[in-house]
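Hi everyone, sorry if this is the wrong subforum. Our group has a chain we'd like a structural model of before ordering constructs, and none of us has done structure prediction before. Sequence below.
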Amino acid sequence: MSSEQPTPPPPPDTPGTPDAPDTAGTPDTRPSVSRPDALSPAALADARRHQPVRGLVGLAFVVPVTVLVSAAAGGALHSLVVLGPITTFALPIMAMIAFWWEDWPGTRFPRPWSGLYDTALVVAGGTALAVLGQLVVNGSDLVGVFAPGPAHPGLDPAANSLAGSIFTLVLQLTLVCERRPLGRLDPVPAGLAAVGLCWALGLLAWLALVRSDAVESESYGAWFTSIGAWQMFFWVALRGWPFARIDRTWPRLLLGNVAVIACGWAGYLLTGHVLDWPGGRITATAGTAIGCILLVAMLFEAWPAIRLAPAPGRTVAVLIAVTLTVLLTWLLPKLAHALGVPHAREWSWSTHVMLNALSTAVILHVAVWKRWPVPTAPSGPMS
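Answer:
Right subforum, don't worry. Here is the predicted structure as C-alpha cells:
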C-alpha cells in the first residue's frame, strides 16, 4: 500500500479553479464562459505562457476584419448603413454556434476549414435574419437590405434596436441564465430554440414599445446595449464572479438576472437623465465597453492580469478595459468625422466599429476559429 498522501485540492481563490460547483458530484452544465473555472488550470498556465504574443497574433485577424466591416463597403457611412444591421442580425447565429453548438458543424472538419464553414453559416444566417428584419420593419423590399436608398428604405437605423435587443436577449439566456431550461435539450435543437425564443420575445417587445411609438427606438436600443455592457462585465471580464460562488442554481440565476438588469437600467438612467446624453451616445459608449471587454478578456485572456492573484487580477483587467473604453469613445467620433461620416451619425459609426465589427472579429477568431493558426489548449470556446 502506497504511503503517498493525496494532494489536497487548491483553495477556492486559486486562479483558474472553480469557486463553487453547482452541486457536489454533479457535472457543471453551465457554458464555459459563465463558469468560475472558465479558464481551467491547464488553460490558465497556457495563457500565461503564450500571452501577449497569442493576442498580438490574433490582432492580425481582428484588425483587418474590423476595418473591412467598418469602412470597406463603399466607405464608412455606406458600411454603417448596409453592413451594420446585417452584422447585428448575425450576432445571435454566431453566439449559437460558439456557445450552444460548441462550433458544430465546423467540428466535422479540420482547421481552418472548420472556421470557414462556421463563418459561412454565420454570414448566411445573419443575412436571412436581416431579410426577416426588413420584412418586419419595411415590408418585403429586399433591395433595401443590400442597396438602401430613397425608394428602398433600409434596415439602418430603423431595425438596429430590434437586432440589438435580440442579441442582448440571446446573451442573457446564454450567460446569465446559463442556457436554462433549453440547455437540457441536445445542442443543435437547443441552440435553434434559443435563437427562436429570443427572436419571438425581442420582436414582441419591439412591436409593443417601439412600433407603437411608446418608446423611441434610439432609447430602446440604448437601454438594451447598457444591459449588454453589464453582461460582458460580469460574465466575461469577471468570468461569472461573484454569482458563480453561489452553490444553489435558482438563487444564482435570480440574483444574476436582477443584478444585470438593475445595473443596466441604472447606467441608462445615469447617462440619459443625469448626464443628459442622447441615446446614440449611450449606445456608442456601452458598445465600446463591450468591444473593449472582449478585446481584453477574450483575445488577450486578461493579460497581464492573469499573472496576478484573482482579486487584484480582476481589478487590473477591468481598469484596462475601462481605460480603453474612455480612449476609444473619445477617438472614434473624431475618426468618423475624418472619414466623412455626417456629424449626426458619428456615434452610430462608433457603435458599428466596436459592437459590430470588432466584437464580431474577436468572437470569430477566438470562439469560432479557435485562434487558428495559433495552437491553443482545449478549454472551451472562450479559450
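For your construct planning: Residues 45-368 form one domain. Residues 212 and 377 are 50 Å apart (CA to CA).
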